[in-house]
Amino acid sequence: MKSELFEDLVATSAAGSPDAIFLVNERGRILHVSPACEDIFGYVPRDFVDQFIIDFVVPADQDATLREAREVLAGRKRVGFENRYRHKDGRDVYVTWSARWLEHERLRVGVARDVTELRRRDASPLSLLSLLAPHERKVLDLLLTEASEKQIAERLGLAASTTHSYITGIFRKYGVRGRAGLMSLWLKHLSSSIAQANER
Q1: Would you list the domain boundaries of the chain?
Q2: How many CB atoms lie within 10 A of CB 148?
Q3: Are 136 and 170 in contact (CB under 8 A)?
Q4: At what angle do helices 134-143 and 149-156 cross, to 10 degrees?
Q5: Which CATH number fits domain 3-115: 3.30.450.20, 3.40.50.300, 3.30.110.40, 3.40.50.150?
Q6: Fewer beta carbons within 10 angstroms: which end of the chain, N or C?
Q7: CA diameter of the chain
Q8: Sign of the C-alpha dihedral, residues 40, 108, 77, 81?
Q9: Number of other residues whose CB lies within 10 A of the CB of residue 143
């Protein structure tokens, strides 16, 4: 196969991959990212290019991410590292990485796969509480009652638009479309907890 054809095939495969492919220099600055970054993170490639990759990582995951980057820079091929990135819309995206150092090019190449839905399915509603801001937790407590959105706003002394914004944020973080889905998620968790308690 001619080298030009091979290079075109590689470039086309990378561009069509559902995983995001990053090229990052020694200082951690992004030089290239494939189009899949928009589906995963909400940013188009030009939003990433020339930015430091660590700036997109959720603050709580930055130290572990920097340690992992040092392993890659030391020439160790890494597979399965997981961290969270901040999506353009503000939510957390769980990503698992395969990465290696290209010595000749002096670049770190990383392939990022979105595993957010897997993590949300595995997580209990209680563990997801850590994703909520303090006001969102208060709104959640009332969402799990019969209170209407207007009543929630009145009880918490919030504007209706602010309350609605909190509610949509809660639905997004829990991966549900509405209140019925949220209730169902919590009822499943409650049933599971009761069943586990009865087995003891």
Answers
A1: 3-115, 123-199
A2: 10
A3: yes
A4: 130
A5: 3.30.450.20
A6: C
A7: 70
A8: negative
A9: 20
**Measured between alpha carbons, how far is 63 from 186 in angstroms, rounded to an integer?**
32
Q: Which two tokens stand for residue 136?
A: 């969102």
Cβ-contact 127, 116 below 8 angstroms: no
> 189: exposed, middle or buried (C-beta count within 10 Å: 0-12, 13-18, 19+)?
middle
Q: Which CATH architecture has domain 123-199?
A: Orthogonal Bundle (1.10)
The token pair that represents 30 in the structure block? 């992004």
- CA 178 remoteness from chain centre: 20
- At position 164, the amino acid (one-letter code) is H
Residue-wise pLDDT tens for the chain (200 aa)?
444 544 454 455 556 678 999 999 999 999 999 999 999 999 999 999 999 999 999 998 999 999 999 999 999 988 888 999 999 998 889 999 999 999 999 999 999 999 887 776 655 666 666 667 788 889 999 998 999 999 999 999 999 999 998 898 888 777 777 898 888 877 776 766 666 566 65
Q: In 10 A of CB 125, how many CB atoms?
A: 16
